[in-house]
Amino acid sequence: MTRPLFFVPALCMSLTLAAQKSEPVHLHFTPLYQGKALVPYEDGEPTSSSYIETFKCYLSAFKLIADGKVVWEETDSYHLLDASDPKTLEVHLTVPLRMAWDHVEFLLGIDSLTSVSGALGGDLDPTKGMYWEWNSGYICMKLEGHSPSSAGPNGGFLFHLGGYLPPFAFFRTIDLAMFSAGEQNITIDLDAFLSAIDLRTRYNVMSPGEAAHELGGTAATIFRCDNAK
Description:
Elements: H1 7-20, E1 22-33, E2 36-37, E3 51-66, E4 69-73, E5 78-82, E6 90-96, E7 103-108, H2 112-115, E8 131-133, E9 137-146, E10 156-162, E11 172-177, E12 183-189, H3 190-195, E13 204-205, H4 210-219, E14 223-225
Parallel strand pairs: 1-12, 10-13
Antiparallel strand pairs: 1-2, 1-6, 3-4, 3-5, 3-7, 3-9, 7-11, 8-9, 9-10, 12-14
């Protein structure tokens, strides 16, 4: 039996109204180095003996919190920030219209379940240069550069940090107080991260383990919201 045609426009109207009942939340991430927005050194002669060549990190499992309760969470929530590509420093969330919230929560890194699921696509694609292998998982944060303080070759430092196995899992939960507004500015203080490390003795961490786990605790403290309450 043919169904009445009036159901079709009614369904279209319902879907249109549902689509209109959302709004964007834009999270702008700014890695800071030497007190300024980081522009990674690439080619030519460096203008300083201290510089960063690479900064990348995974942020995942974004949630919005109101009065201590989760009111919204992003599905398939994996974002690779790369300081050399400004587009990746913008995370856009689509949330219900006029939803009240006072904190944003996310993981620095990739959770253990995703890590053991095998290499995936999108921002999790191994071609992004952030995947070790199945038994090590993803590099959650990559920081490479040079400093006069470093005892590494040519003053270099290399931090490829990750790992999902206890007791040395790298990933950390970040919780930031914010306004319920469409634009949020979040800084990542790389000066604070590097100043917490004695580069004379620790300038090269390239695999999961106790050192990477310890540095994960340091990395969790360097995210700050500029327009927090």
